[in-house]
Amino acid sequence: MTTEPDILSSALQAQIAQAIADAGGWIGFDRFMELALYTPGLGYYANDSTKFGAMPDSGSDFVTAPELSPVFGQTLANQVREALDVTQTDEVWEFGAGSGALAGQLLGSLGERVRRYTIVDLSGSLRARQQVALSAYGDRVVWADRLPDTFQGVVVGNEVLDAMPVQLLARHGGAGTGVWHERGVAFENGAFVWADRPTALRPPVEPEGPQDYLTETHAQGEGFLRTLAQRLTRGAAFLIDYGFGESEYYHPQRHMGTVMCHRGHLADSDPLADVGLKDITAHVNFTAMALAAQDAGLNVLGYTTQAHFLINSGLLSNLELLAQAERAQAAKLMMEHEMGELFKVLALGVGEPWEPMGFARGDRSHRL
């Protein structure tokens, strides 16, 4: 029996196949990822499927920190409040607000300190959910399709950079002698297939070792940071995501790349299957993000693990207020084998540098 998800996926496959044909039979993976995630009405983030939730039985595909525990947003609010005070601003801008859970946690904690909370989200279906979830805050919450030419305030982005399309680079052969190709997507016999083309593109460092090597570069993420730098005239930004600094990102042992898919709280490594029905992500190269921001005029105020950031920002005192079961769930935010170590926080600022509370101990900026 054909189900509604099957129909959606088939329709999206047909649109992407047509885009490939229009492009001469091949598109880069960044274009494929963009179409798979953001094609209006059909892409993963543009359709009506449930995405965010703590358990698979909710119909969700993955959990983010705000769904895991409200103390995530309540603790982040301490840092946001400090940033609002230091920068003398009264607006918060959130990119990719998901279910609206983080916005609700921040607004509930910050109260009247936030005059306006602007959500920038490309997904019409997610925006509709956010509007319902945040209706109690009235016209203090507004939505935007894009950034204005100039703006002020504190920017928050939780798991935003990992959803930005990446280019795939494949080296056939070892360091120094291997030939680099851009890995893209073709459509053959009714299915998407990988197709490599020689390219002048290179990762920022040459991965060591004699093995073939697959990795990503993050032109769209870097472009986002440059745009942010050009338009943020006063304020700060806190970007939270899973990823590494450059030396870890292009380590010889990471030769299979970092692109992953998520569906029903299970992970797989095949983004060409079930398009529109699962998330596609790549880990973040935080060195590239920091350099792009810095070159465009922002200051790097700090870089550390989520565990250090949340503990520095008051997580432990928030945990004490929870019942035992809720405390165990919230502890995953800082556990090394859960979110604590893999997730990092990058802080950026305009104007005179200052040290945000979240980086008072354990700052790893020197490792970017």
TrEMBL record:
Gene Ontology biological process: methylation
Q: Does the keyword Transferase apply?
A: yes
**Record-linked Pfam families:** Methyltransf_28 (PF02636)
Q: Write out the entry's keywords from A to Z.
A: Methyltransferase, Transferase
A GO MF term: methyltransferase activity
Report which superkingdom the organism of origin falls in.
Bacteria
Q: Carries keyword Transit peptide? A: no
Q: What PANTHER family does UniProt report for this protein, alphabetically?
A: PROTEIN ARGININE METHYLTRANSFERASE NDUFAF7, MITOCHONDRIAL
Q: What is this protein called?
A: SAM-dependent MidA family methyltransferase
